[in-house]
């Protein structure tokens, strides 16, 4: 996965014409990047950051696993050579590694740990005055979302760039499609159907010497307190496209279902393997979300918006971006590397002194996934206000490899309570 992510950067680096000497406390001659979370996505994001600007170096890295850190640095060095300038003093291990990266003299940080840690890391990065690339999702619970919104507000006050990992927002075919929707090409949007029906993902067999906590941290995806469940961690991309189609209006409520049909063994923790959620908006508009992670099943990854004047489709699986109805249109332009564009635009904004702040929409899109999970887990309708004000906090506040990881039963609709 890491190698594929490193090889995917195809766009040319941003040309800097008139860099400012200083912005938000950084030296514009060389931008130092810190990577917090050295997994596949974090390593890919670091590779794209190093390609986004001619004068960027990787200065510090942090993770809880030495093998992940070593693999990441080895792969990055193969691709970017002397742009990887991480000496032994700037390789930080442990649950407090993010603090050490932030204190190491970096200008920009990449936050790519499991989502449970994102709100705390984001707030710390903003308080430290660093520009931020924040991978999705931004939280696993409502208290986390509220902290993200607080951090985003502070980032705006401090003129810090905060860019999200909702990558389809940087994909030119989808930008063109959703711009057409927002310009009225299909009229008033009545219904948005979106899917994320895929196969399953990785699982790491337990090795001798691993504690219970290490096993859970290495398989974080399968524990709701660490990942948010697959609706929040992966299918959130489709939910975000639904929100985009609605002009990022907030829904009134969500109701739905979900469960475990195939991924039922203990190695899959406590998350579901399928969801079906209905989001209700003002004036009767509805969003329908379907996601599934089951092998040997029909796949679908798309967003389809139906309006009073036509239909718009952004189909990831088939690479189709078109509008039918009164105003027919089909995207025929270049399909960019959206991952690279994220970082190109972030570093261009830093150089120009024109900060980007995507904090509000990235937090709201994250909460859309969380409220959908709440609705499925409890079996009840959850309003937006209930979801935003929820007091349910997932996971502990302190961590170690010797800790006893939380034991959470698989949610049972009708029995699992909302809080």
From TrEMBL:
Lineage of the species this protein comes from: Bacteria, Pseudomonadati, Bacteroidota, Cytophagia, Cytophagales
Residue ranges occupied by any GFO/IDH/MocA-like oxidoreductase domain in the UniProt entry: 179-312
Top-level taxon in the UniProt lineage: Bacteria
Protein name per UniProt: Gfo/Idh/MocA family oxidoreductase
InterPro entries: Gfo/Idh/MocA-like_OxRdtase_N, Gfo/Idh/MocA_oxidrdct_glycsds, GFO_IDH_MocA-like_dom, NAD(P)-bd_dom_sf
An MF annotation (GO) of this entry: nucleotide binding
Domain named Gfo/Idh/MocA-like oxidoreductase N-terminal: residues: 31-155
